[in-house]
């Protein structure tokens, strides 16, 4: 067995020199013990690392970069894992193109992990200003998951070259005096300052720009886990801002609803305007625009569909496409004046799959329905309809807050959260998909019967 001793957990240069000697001697990965400092590793590892002159061999620069980054991982097997992969690549470079190779896949996953950890340090580290012996210094605290502090130091030197700063972490601390980078031992969270006078100004600013309609909590937690919140003065506000977001929005909408109409503005204008910038789910990215509800605000009947279609997305109005035409015909047959009904959708953005030049409707997911449910609830709060007709299971889930089956709930009144009565029926797009004309005529008659029965409840 051979012992390869490295100076530190992130000693890539030491690992590279040791690997060169081992490759030159043809030592297999199973015969090498990798050791950091004088820490004991293997009782049987007694032979020193070889000093043989390594023959020249070239490696792809991207592979060398990956090796350099994966060394920073906390996995204790990484040194031997990378050496074993290096041996195989030297023997056959095609190994790097085998995406089914389990070792290569594991190393690539570790590489991505390090990239994320380095990014999080750059994005979530916050400096606080302190005065020490009449000198201003900026001190930041961070808890990286891997050994990325030294590798990241160059980024902070480039970004804050004219500042004196210190980055404290549990394993190592780095300090910059505008000329030289130095290192120190690890620190404790209590060694870092808690705040500075400017933080109160920043917190006031973040409170003022916080827009609850644009909050995507799931995406935020994915990119910025809660473990980092305690070290960032702005994120310390996030829990309370999220907790009070809907209450504040509801208050805003209630004030808009009860305020006197001025210059012909409708009470729900504030809600509609806010919805145009909705970022509660990712559907806003490919969609052309938000398609909000439409109709008289004193309507006794509110109809909720699934989502806008291709034509609705382009026009910015609900129920103007093929399904909308079927809906209009059914309303007329049911004896309901279409102009006296408020129509909207459970999801306000068009979800689709591109196929050539066409955009094919895709069913909204549970998360997208739940994210958009708040808008439907506020529409109902403003209109206060006596009857709300849900067309399809998506609309039913939006109104009831749970999964529903049209066949089970259809044809009977449903008590809705927040008051009012609901009625569940099919979506008119279902009728368009029926290939048999006799069946389609039968289902259309049933749809008309549902609409007529719901209106009769008034």
UniProtKB/TrEMBL annotation:
Keyword Ion transport: no
InterPro entries the UniProt entry points to: DNA_repair_put (IPR023875), DUF4130 (IPR025404), UDG_Type-4/5 (IPR051536), Ura-DNA_glyco_family4 (IPR005273), Uracil-DNA_glycosylase-like (IPR005122), Uracil-DNA_glycosylase-like_sf (IPR036895)
A Pfam family annotated for this UniProt entry: DUF4130
Domain called Uracil-DNA glycosylase-like: residue spans: 292-452
Keywords, in A-Z order: 4Fe-4S, DNA damage, DNA repair, Hydrolase, Iron, Iron-sulfur, Metal-binding
SUPFAM superfamilies noted in UniProt: Uracil-DNA glycosylase-like
Keyword Metal-binding belongs to the record: yes
Family the UniProt entry places it in: Belongs to the uracil-DNA glycosylase (UDG) superfamily. Type 4 (UDGa) family.
UniProt name for this protein: Type-4 uracil-DNA glycosylase
Species for this entry: Methylorubrum rhodesianum
Taxonomic lineage of the native organism: Bacteria, Pseudomonadati, Pseudomonadota, Alphaproteobacteria, Hyphomicrobiales
């Amino acid at each position: 067995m051979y012992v390869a001793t490295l100076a530190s957990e992130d000693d890539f240069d030491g690992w590279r020199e040791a690997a060169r000697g081992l490759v030159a001697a043809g030592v297999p990965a199973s015969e090498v013990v990798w050791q950091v400092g004088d820490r004991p590793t293997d009782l049987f590892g007694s032979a020193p690392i070889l000093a043989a002159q390594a023959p020249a061999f070239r490696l792809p620069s991207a592979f060398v970069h990956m090796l350099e980054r994966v060394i920073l991982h906390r996995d204790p097997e990484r040194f031997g894992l990378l050496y074993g992969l290096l041996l195989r690549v030297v023997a056959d470079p095609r190994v790097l193109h085998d995406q089914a190779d389990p070792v290569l896949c594991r190393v690539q996953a570790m590489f991505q992990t390090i990239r994320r950890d380095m990014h999080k340090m750059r994005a979530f580290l916050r400096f606080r200003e302190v005065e020490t012996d009449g000198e201003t210094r900026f001190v930041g605290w961070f808890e990286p998951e891997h050994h990325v502090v030294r590798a990241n130091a160059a980024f902070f030197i480039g970004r804050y070259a004219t500042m004196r700063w210190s980055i404290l972490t549990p394993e190592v601390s780095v300090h910059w005096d505008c000329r030289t980078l130095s290192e120190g031992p690890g620190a404790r969270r209590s060694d870092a300052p808690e705040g500075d006078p400017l933080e109160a100004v920043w917190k006031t600013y973040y409170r003022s720009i916080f827009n609850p309609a644009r909050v995507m909590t799931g995406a935020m937690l994915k990119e910025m886990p809660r473990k980092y919140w305690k070290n960032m003065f702005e994120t310390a506000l996030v829990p309370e801002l999220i907790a009070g977001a809907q209450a504040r929005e509801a208050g805003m909408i209630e004030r808009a609803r009860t305020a006197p109409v001025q210059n012909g503005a409708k009470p729900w204008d504030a809600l509609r305007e806010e919805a145009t910038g909705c970022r509660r789910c990712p559907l806003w990215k490919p969609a052309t625009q938000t398609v909000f509800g439409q109709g008289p605000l004193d309507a006794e009947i509110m109809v909720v569909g699934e989502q806008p279609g291709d034509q609705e997305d382009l026009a910015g109005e609900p129920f103007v496409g093929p399904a909308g035409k079927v809906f209009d015909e059914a309303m007329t047959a049911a004896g309901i004046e279409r102009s006296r009904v408020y129509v909207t959708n459970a999801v306000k953005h068009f979800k689709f799959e591109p196929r050539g030049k066409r955009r094919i409707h895709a069913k909204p997911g549970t998360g997208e329905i739940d994210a958009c449910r708040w808008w439907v609830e506020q529409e109902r709060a403003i209109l206060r309809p006596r009857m709300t007709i849900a067309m399809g299971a998506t609309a039913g889930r939006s109104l009831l807050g749970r999964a529903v089956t049209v066949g089970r709930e259809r044809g009977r009144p449903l008590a809705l959260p927040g008051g009012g009565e609901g009625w569940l029926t099919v979506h008119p797009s279902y009728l368009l998909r029926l290939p048999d004309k006799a069946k389609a005529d039968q289902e259309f008659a049933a749809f008309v019967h549902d609409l007529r029965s719901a209106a009769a409840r008034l």
